[in-house]
Amino acid sequence: MRPALAACLLLLAGCGPSAKEAYELEVLKLVAMQQESQELLKKIYAKADSGSG
């Protein structure tokens, strides 16, 4: 994830508002992906704790 973020920062440094919007969209995507994976982990752990897995 970090190389992509660094690339976005470089783009942001050299470009105008459209690059900033693209960067913000990428950040939102990364945050959403993180939240989804955390929810998935919670479900996996819940199944393991209940003994059904």
Automatic annotation (TrEMBL):
Highest taxon listed in the record's lineage: Bacteria
Protein name per the record: Lipoprotein
Organism name: Lacipirellula parvula
Lineage, opening ranks: Bacteria, Pseudomonadati, Planctomycetota, Planctomycetia, Pirellulales
